Known about the structure:
By secondary structure, this protein is of the alpha/beta class. The chain has one domain (about 35-155): CATH 3.30.1330.40. It is built from three helices and nine strands. It has helices at about 5-10, 60-80, 110-125, and strands at about 30, 35-40, 45, 50, 55, 60, 90-100, 130-135, 145-155. The strands form three sheets. The chain has a five-stranded mixed beta sheet with strand order 1-2-9-7-8, covered by helices on one side. A two-stranded antiparallel ribbon has the order 3-4. Strands 5-6 form a two-stranded parallel sheet. The longest helix has 22 residues, at about 60-80. The two termini are about 25 Å apart. The mean pLDDT is about 95.
Amino acid sequence: MADTIESRLEAAGVTLPEASAPAANYVPTVTFGAILQTSGQLPMENGALAVTGKLGAGVDLAAGQRAARLCAVNVLAQAKSALGGDLSRVKRLLKLTVFVASDPDFSEQHKVANGASDFLVEILGEAGRHARSAVGVPALPMNAAVEVEAMFEIA
Length: 155
């Protein structure tokens, strides 16, 4: 099997879900020239929010990393939809912003964000190495533990 994004997803045992529809008055992606920006994606799994609550207040680091990984899966689902199903058009992941619902004393947002970063490097290879911000916030939509948005360079 050729070394493609799709083959790496298969090897990782990941099937991308259908891209979810926006939950409010926004679009899921915007393309500007060779840039594809996704809206923030929540840790949805099988159509339901998989990880809720705050890191450091009932949600542990492993659950936060799992949430970030699920968000990254949904980011790729949105990118695939925006690119007409053709993830080979992804040239590079430029930037991730990872929002972590956090207790005021929690300071390991960067470790939570690794759940998304590690997954995207695994799936995208060198093209997945990216700039990143990991930001602690008091709350996220629907009590999600993590939200991730991404910016890609596309062909």
